[in-house]
Amino acid sequence: MNILDLIQQGENASIEFKEELPRPESIAKEIIAFANTQGGTLLVGVSDDGKVRGVLEQQNFEEYFSNIARNNVIPAINVITQMINYENKNVIVVTIPKGKDKPYQTLNHQFLIRIGSTNRVATQSELMRLFQQSGVFHYDAIGIDNSSFKNINLNKITGYFDNYQVDFSQEEYPENLLKNTDILTDDFHVTIAGLLVFSLNPQQFMPEACISFAHFSGDEITEELIDKQTITGTLDYQVDTALAVIKNNCQRPSHIEGSKTVQNRFSYPDKVFRELLVNACVHRNYAISGSRIRIFMFSDRIEFISPGKLPNTITIEKLSYGVSYSVNPIIVKFMENLRYIDKLGRGLPMVYKIAKENHKYIKFEEIGEEFKVTLEL
Questions:
Q1: How remote is the C-alpha of 130 from its chain's centroid?
Q2: Are 45 and 57 in contact (CB under 8 A)?
Q3: How confident is the prediction along the chain (377 residues), in pLDDT tens digits per residue?
Q4: Cα–Cα distance between 163 and 167 in angstroms, integer?
Q5: Residue 241: CB partners within 8 Å, gap ≥ 6?
Q6: Residue 21 and residue 92: Cα distance in Å, rounded?
Q7: Fewest CB atoms less than 10 Å from the CB: which of 22, 222, 243, 345?
Q8: Torsion sign, CA atoms 31, 33, 34, 38
Q9: How far is 227 from 213, CA to CA, in rounded Å?
Q10: In angstroms, what CA-CA distances link 364 with 43, 172, 265, 297, 332?
Q11: Helix 61-71 / helix 24-36 crossing angle, nearest 10 deg
Q12: Buried b (16+ CB within 10 A) or exposed e, 40-61
């Protein structure tokens, strides 16, 4: 570990300096804030201005910090503690991982997150997102205020149940059937999932539950716009429409070689773009207000950006190996029944495989509160 590199970064979202050994309660807060966010490093013996002061205490620091992480953090978390000598001064380096059991809290029930170089108590919406990532709470099961049975597209519902030999039109109490299938809540409001898949107009209640598409002439967002669209409607309609828009914008001029017409650039099969669209629509965090799915097409790549982080147990590395996850299990169920996904976790590995076989670049990454897939064209 190069401690100089860490110090030169200064205090930020993933690094915190402490000139002296803090009290256990203060250390616990640092651990909790890092674990609830993206993980981080605590340097003890370094002042706020980056000067190495060193620590003088002679004790088993590894055991000291491990005990705090076990006894002062709920639930307990494992941290890694090292003593590093820099310019004849000892610095304690505590590495806190991104938590797998979020949300973490203090003994007096404070939920802290890391914002920039400071820790703060999570707001209600931030805490809700932490619970979503843990799988304890699913936002897509929430009912929409002022919504009711009348907001449901009865033709679509009838066709949906026809596939399971259920004649919806003959149901004596149709609201009860919708309630028992998670389309309505117990008080007969339309659920988030029901709204996004079966309503007449999802954007009436969730205006940002849509896809923004932009096609730029070059490889930067500042280049001239070739096409720009906002795609609304139910999730299945958004997927189908966005796929058609991408295909139309991906058309490449061909040229003649001998007696054959040759396309100038490799074209992905429809299933690649379809999978990335379904993944963005199904797994985005609909609790994040004011944000929508964005698709940016450039001359050399296409980017799929969806609001929300990966769940606690999922890492970027696991995605290409088919480890599946479900932020919105009810939406997943509906889209699976509509034949848009198979729920076997084969989608992203298929995209990864096709890209690599054709020597194309693909990257999965978390950026702040968003998940981004970049695919080379």
A1: 11
A2: no
A3: 678 888 888 999 899 999 999 899 999 999 999 999 889 999 999 999 999 999 987 778 899 999 999 999 999 999 999 999 888 899 999 999 988 888 899 999 999 999 888 999 988 777 777 776 665 568 898 899 999 999 999 999 999 999 888 899 888 899 999 999 999 999 999 999 999 999 999 999 999 999 999 999 999 999 999 999 999 999 999 999 999 999 999 876 554 556 555 555 668 999 999 999 999 999 898 988 788 999 999 999 999 999 987 765 567 776 766 556 678 889 999 999 999 987 556 788 899 899 999 999 999 998 878 899 999 99
A4: 9
A5: 231, 233
A6: 9
A7: 222
A8: positive
A9: 8
A10: 30, 48, 23, 16, 21
A11: 70
A12: bbbbbbbeeeeebbbbeeeeeb
Closest CA to 235 of 175, 178, 286, 270: 286
Question: Any bridge partners for residue 19, and if so which?
Answer: none
Residues 43 and 301: their CA atoms lie apart, in Å, by 39
β-strand 211-216 against 293-297: which pairing, if any? parallel
User: 154: which 2 tokens?
Assistant: 């009865």
Beta bridge partners of 231: 211
A 10 A CB-CB count for 349 gives: 16
Q: Is the peptide bond before 75 cis (omega within 30 degrees of 0)?
A: yes
pTM over 0.70: no
Sign of CA dihedral 17, 18, 24, 26: negative
DSSP 199: B
Using alpha carbons, list the distances in angstroms from residue 205 to 151, 196, 324, 330, 373: 10, 10, 29, 18, 28
Collapsing DSSP to helix, strand or coil, 208 comes out as coil
